[in-house]
Amino acid sequence: MEDQIKQQVDLFRNRLIEGLDESLNHSGVNSRRVAERLTALAEIGMTEEGGCRRISFSQEEKQAKNLVKQWMEEDGLNVHIDGSGNVFGRVEGEIDGPAVVSGSHLDSVMHGGHFDGPLGVLSALEVASAWKGAGVKPTVPYEVVVFTDEEGARFNGGLLGSQSVVGELDMEEEVKRVDFNGRPFTDVLADVGLTPDGFRKSKRDLNDVKAFIEVHIEQGKQLEKRNLPVGVVTGIAGPTWLSVTFSGVAGHAGNTPMNDRTDALVAASEFMLNVKDFPGQVSDSGVATVGKLSVDPNGVNVIPGEVTLSVDIRDIKLEWKEELSKRIKEYAQQVSDAHGTTVSIQESMNVAPVEVPADMQSQAGEAMREVLGEAPFYLPSGAGHDAMILGRYVPMGMLFTQSLDGVSHNPAEWSSLSDCVQTIHVLKRFVEKVMED
């Protein structure tokens, strides 16, 4: 097994270095350093299939954090680890005041890739490393952060580290959780030297934060289709989850005539077929997905009497998401009435989206234009990130790096080194612009 993992690490490094473009080594940014650091993190939790298993509150996540902490210290950052296990590395500025903060996470899903999270951490750190190499001191304080448990693979939750920083975490509820092995929350925390009380005490005075900026892989294909290394995020969509149940009458498939049926699955099927048409009626950024279906009694020779399905609705503006949800609910009732069934709709989740402030979008776009000579491309994020949590309280910006084939949360996840380094250059200029503002 060790030989297979070593082979996978070598394959990862070699593939990354194949994309090494020495012309991108300027302004203190070092593409080889980025490649070596990405590889070193990839080795921690590398699987035999070439993926990453570095779940939250594991020894692997802790090891990865300690390695980044070591790099921070080598680059002259003052390191602080809070009670949630969030790692902060700080560079003092020419003037004192609120800090610009940038970073992401190091935990992964169960069978993930090596860029989701680590790229954001290492991009933020490379900005500090570049300043040090060029003998530059930032205008105001700058902090690199590694947040704990963004993915939530351990307890089917997530974003615990960033929620603790802003004071949103309901620890009374969190301590009731058990992980996939049935182990209590407090026992799992103890494995890595953390406690619920530490999480409670991790709330930060957000007056000390000027802005938060996160780099993340796109997890989609828009940048790849446009052959762009980096894009500017306009907002982070918040999900609304609906559970829709169509109720008809179960009956014998052979003895019930076609004109005397109340088939719940037929009604549900018409609804599912047309849900896809509603987002475009409201905005260019909305999405709606039916991802789960339960049929009862689910027999080959039985007319379905009840069907329950899920609808995941997302958009980057609250009013757009609410309008989309309203139209889908109304349509469910129309379909049900047309087929003689009844329908019930329950909302199990409703997370408010977070828009990126216009001035942060503008500064990110200017940075992209200055660094790459490209007109900025703006796109929404359909997935949640730590930036979503921070963005409720402080100015927030986000950059996406091109993802190969749009693949994410999968061992095949990949972003070329060239695209990663170009994103870092844009991040560096973006951070400098925010500092100067």
UniProtKB/TrEMBL annotation:
Keywords: Hydrolase, Manganese, Metal-binding. Its EC number is 3.5.3.9. The keyword Lipid biosynthesis does not apply. It comes from the Bacteria. Residues 237-335 form the Peptidase M20 dimerisation domain. It is an enzyme of class 3 (hydrolase). InterPro entries: Amidase_Cbmase, Bact_exopeptidase_dim_dom, Peptidase_M20, Peptidase_M20_dimer. Belongs to the peptidase M20 family. This is Allantoate deiminase.
